[in-house]
Amino acid sequence: MMLKLVLAVLVVAPYVEGRGGISKVQEKRIVNGVEVNPEGKWPWIVSISIQNQVAKRNCGGSILTSTWILTAAHCFDARPPNFPHPPVATDITVVAGAHNIQRQERSQQSRGATRYILHPNYNPHTLTADIALIQLSSPLIFNQRVKRARIQAKDVYPKMNKNCYAAGWGLTNVHPKISPATLQEARLPIIQKNVHNEHIYAGHEQPANTWPSTCMGDSGGPLMCERSTDKAWVVKGVLSHGATDCTVYSAFTPVATYLNWIKTFNVGDIKT
GO annotations under biological process (predicted)? Predict the structure, then answer.
């Protein structure tokens, strides 16, 4: 999983990758991370596939409740030529409980979607309010490999240098493009930027090919930080964007800022 961005030259467009046949359009992934061990370490992470007749797009997400998923709004952008229009709900497949996404594992639960909802203030050019919800066609069954995420409730910027994790099935290498079969994770320190707190920034400020980072295919996945009071892992952000070469820090949409909006949809009991 690699996600990098430099604000001075930040490209806020999401990562896109095309391949022959049914082309694959992937948002950001993890670079210079490691395979998640043990399997099921992050049981609230889901893989989201959006597929029409000619193309497939992959994102990540987090389980809010048994029928609602948290992800990034830009995952549903129209992107010609393969996605000339925004996707419809029937294009979406969500897989929970996965480790090796290229295999059918017994732990996996696959669901369709009845609708997706973008935040009304989402701006595809600046990627502000880059947050969305997916309502599943049927409930997930919770077990050791499929659980709700804890969501950050207090709208405060994380402490500088606090170590958090991002995880996903995004690219592990950009040139050439390499996609992992298994879930990858990267430890990312929180950094402070002299900008409005429309995003949380995590990763490394100086470009380096050895830093862990998010990359194409990781978009929509969680930024998870350990809470000091009870050592619980809490989702503080949703991966929004980063540098196209995946060598520096990434920007995450702060979940707590939008928690009241999320609750307007009667999503059920949100774990905090």
Answer: acrosome reaction; proteolysis
User: Cα–Cα distance between 83 and 16 in angstroms, integer?
Assistant: 12
- Point out the catalytic residue in the list 47, 66, 74, 99: 74
Q: What number of other Cβ atoms are within 10 A of residue 152's Cβ? A: 23
* 45-148+259-264 and 149-256 share one fold: yes
Residue ranges covered by each domain of the chain: 45-148+259-264, 149-256
Q: Catalytic residue at 245? A: no
pLDDT digits (tens, 9 = 90+) for 49-100: 999 988 898 999 999 999 999 999 999 999 888 899 999 999 999 999 999 9
Whether residue 74 lies in the annotated active site:
yes
pLDDT, one tens digit per residue, over 244-264 is 777 778 899 999 999 999 999
77, 91, 130, 218: the catalytic one is: 130
Superfamily grouping for domain 45-148+259-264: Trypsin-like serine proteases (2.40.10.10)
Q: Please, is 270 exposed, middle or buried when counting C-beta atoms within 10 Å of its C-beta (0-12, 13-18, 19+)?
A: middle
Please give the full DSSP string across 122-173, using - where no structure is assigned.
Answer: --TTT-TT--EEEEESS----SSSS-PPEE--S--PPPTT-EEEEEES--SB
CATH match of 149-256 with 2.40.10.10 = yes
Give the active site residue among 47, 219, 240, 250.
Answer: 219
**Is 30 within 8 Å of 246 (Cβ atoms)?**
no
